[in-house]
């Protein structure tokens, strides 16, 4: 139903997406998971037809976005990060207005608006002005405007951001009910969101898809390796030669470049439990001082962190903050860069 193939997007000197591919089928909720700035919004805006891709294709129900944008817009519902609402309209009036923009006939509109309000549990506030609604209700109105024309595909950009826990549960349940007969893609930077709502996840980092799988398979895949983080002091060559000499060591990656030859290194090994003791023995024997050796777990949070910090770490040798030293939950829930401001509501966003 939704197919994205080799999508790239360049904004001036910023490459926001590089060769991104994934697909989602009817009845499925696919989570697009990644830290701030990963490229989630860019992907969604291209899919919704609001932004041209630099390369690659995005298609909905067999229609390519750049070839037949009108056909795609009729088949897709899009909730941007900030819903494009008109605060001085009533909920019902606004949904009629959006229905008209989306090409619903005057005869069909009352029934479709009623249906969207029922789906999103908005009947009690249908005559209320939008600016008087709570954030949770405004989010539901945002979802209602995305589904009012009954599209088979829905894309939701961070649909639960800023909601309180009760509202989050309500919106998640609403999304699950919509997915019964539709294809839903939602973006989030929060792992629990995917865990709670999605069957499958595409993890995106620095504009690239670094994993696509069910969460269960993702976990199974990662437990085929053991990962150790070492804090060592010694000649670089001695450390690297020691690592190279061990059969169980698959790869390693320096996490920090620090003075006085003390560094952190992340070592990926095959799952043989003997590799850990062998590592210690070989390094100490080579005259390398070991301050710490930590085996990284395989919780989903750690897997996500591993997948989404790899490249950052590789290229951040000179940065003052070592991402590997951030607490896992902080790095995931409180990424350092700020969110992109969504476009201000305008009539084009409603079309
Ligand atoms: N209009 C633009 N002009 C220039 N660069 C942009 C523009 N929009 C996005 N970018 C850059 O493209 C990259 C991807 O941004 P995007 O908003 O798609 O990420 P995101 O994963 O949705 O992030 P967030 O979770 O913060 O919304 C970032 O580096 C961002 O700064």
TrEMBL record:
InterPro entries: AAA+_ATPase, ABC_transporter-like_ATP-bd, P-loop_NTPase. SMART domains: AAA. It holds the Pfam family ABC_tran. SUPFAM superfamilies: P-loop containing nucleoside triphosphate hydrolases (SSF52540). Gene3D superfamilies: P-loop containing nucleotide triphosphate hydrolases. The keyword ATP-binding applies. One of its GO terms (molecular function) is ATP hydrolysis activity. Residues 2-231 form the ABC transporter domain. Residues 314-323 have a biased composition (Acidic residues). Keywords: ATP-binding, Nucleotide-binding, Transport. Residues 311-351 are annotated as: Disordered. Belongs to the ABC transporter superfamily. This is ABC transporter, ATP-binding protein. It comes from Acaryochloris marina (strain MBIC 11017).
């Amino acid at each position: 139903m939704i197919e994205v193939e080799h999508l790239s997007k360049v904004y001036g000197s910023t490459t926001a997406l590089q060769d991104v591919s994934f697909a989602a089928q009817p009845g499925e909720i696919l989570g697009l998971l990644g830290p701030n700035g990963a490229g989630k919004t860019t992907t969604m805006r291209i899919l919704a037809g609001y932004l041209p891709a630099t390369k690659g294709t995005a298609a909905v129900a067999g229609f390519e976005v750049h070839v037949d944008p009108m056909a795609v817009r009729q088949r897709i519902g899009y909730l941007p990060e900030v819903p494009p609402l008109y605060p001085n309209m009533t909920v019902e009036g606004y949904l009629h207005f959006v229905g008209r923009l989306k090409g619903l006939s005057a005869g069909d509109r009352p029934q479709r608006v009623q249906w969207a309000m029922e789906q999103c549990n908005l009947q009690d506030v249908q005559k209320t002005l939008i600016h008087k609604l709570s954030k949770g209700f405004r989010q539901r109105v945002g979802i209602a405007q995305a589904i009012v024309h009954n599209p088979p595909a829905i894309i939701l950009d961070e649909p639960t951001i800023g909601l309180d826990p009760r509202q989050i549960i309500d919106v998640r349940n609403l999304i699950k009910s919509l997915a019964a007969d539709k294809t839903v893609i939602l973006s989030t930077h929060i792992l629990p969101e995917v865990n709670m709502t999605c069957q499958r996840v595409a993890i995106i980092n620095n504009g690239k898809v670094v994993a696509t799988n069910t969460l269960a398979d993702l976990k199974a895949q990662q437990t085929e390796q053991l990962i150790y983080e070492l804090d060592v002091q010694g000649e670089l060559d001695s450390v690297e030669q020691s690592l190279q000499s061990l059969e169980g060591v698959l790869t390693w990656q320096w996490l920090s470049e620090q003075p006085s030859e003390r560094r952190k290194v992340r070592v990926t090994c095959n799952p043989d439990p003997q590799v850990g003791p062998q590592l210690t023995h070989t390094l100490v024997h080579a005259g390398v001082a070991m301050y710490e050796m930590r085996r990284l777990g395989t919780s989903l949070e750690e897997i996500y962190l591993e997948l989404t910090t790899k490249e950052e770490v590789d290229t951040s040798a000179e940065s003052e903050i070592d991402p590997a030293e951030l607490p896992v939950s902080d790095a995931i829930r409180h990424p350092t860069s700020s969110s992109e401001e969504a476009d201000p509501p305008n009539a084009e966003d409603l079309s």
